[in-house]
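Lab meeting prep.
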Amino acid sequence: MIDNKGHGIPDAANTALSHVVTERFISFEQDLLLDRKWWDNVPPLLDDPKVVVASGVRVPDRPSGLRITHEYILERQISKMSDQTQYSSVGKTSDNTIYRTGFVRQIGGFPKLRFREGIDVFVARRVFEMGLIWRVSFGTKSFHLRQGLTQELMHHYWYGGCRRELHRLMGSDVYANFPKAVLISLKSPLVGLHGAFVKSCPQILYIYPLMRLFALIGEIRPYLYGGKP
């Protein structure tokens, strides 16, 4: 047992990193049911010398409507990745991920954040800036264990509240990103209707808009204490 030398997941990640003696290391989230093919599909991606991080994707295990909604969102995001040379965080997550140890140490380890969300986005951006690759095996789907839709919505609310600091970390205009979040929420009923049709899953019609609404509410909350957008 190794004690966290700080507080929270970012400090725990750096504490673990300080004990790594191998050329590669892996991070797994505790509430993840790993795809059986993960070991066959993901670690070999690092055989390419330009690939410094590799991962699969994750979707909620239940309810089925929520899982299908996430699959639809992922498929929609992938379809927009027309130019692979452009930076994208699609599918990139730190919860079923293998890294080149030297690369992570080169960028100074994991970012010091008050919250977990953003570690993967930060690392993905650094990979891109250095002209390297984070490869995602989109066909390798692990299950993120969920208790139901309510838990998922609260997760989106919490993540929305993290975005302000995340934008600041990435050097982007905090306020300029707010109208985009509003627009996404306003368009979500139409996107949900499209998803319900193409995936033959009526639940997407209300699950997707609710996810976007809770994320927007979470993003609005910090502005109430730190200035208007």
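Slide two material, second protein:
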Amino acid sequence: MTSALEGLSLHGDTSDLPALTRFMSDPRPRVRAAAAGAVAARADASSTTELLLPLLADPSPRVAATGARMIARFGRPPRIRVAVQEGQPLQDELEPYWGSAQAWTRRAAWTAARSRRGWLELVACLRLALDEDAALSAEGVRAACGWATRTSVAGRPAPAVAATLEDNLRRAHDGGLLPRRTADLIAFTGGLTRYPHQPPEQPRSAPRTRSRWAHLLHWRRR
């Protein structure tokens, strides 16, 4: 079955999409994953994302990862709405997957979100860095550090994006997840709040006590 699906992805056309889509409900994970690849090969960018997005919540990590990779490579970036009103949160098409109890679904959401590039890619990296799963958090930290060192973003983030970055960057900084240099670089590039360095408090030295001879010398001088 998987060989047939791979053949359709190479030689089929859009008329095969209904059949390929049905295979994404097959009980076998390998068939669902192969169907996801075939759909991405035959559908246009918008249809690829719409058809494959539900796979991010698949009970199989393999299927969820395949769906996310196909979206990132062939689909349109998942939509994110930046509200005009200041103070309104971002409305993310991936929100149901970011909030999943399945760690592999949250990672799949990050894979798909990175295709947005620019400041929105950093939003996704920081969100993964704050994940409760230690492995995902470490991956998000590495991605955020990589973004900070290679980015050539022109311009500042939109107000709603900046507010989200402010919040996530502060949490990552205060939680000791990001190196200070990375946090400062991101803040400087985006015109965000810098985090003033607070040196550790130095223990107060104990009061110096006079020796017996110092006391005697003091009284003799009097």
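Talking points for slide two:
Residues 196-209 have pLDDT under 50 and may be disordered.
Residues 44 and 135 are 34 Å apart (CA to CA).
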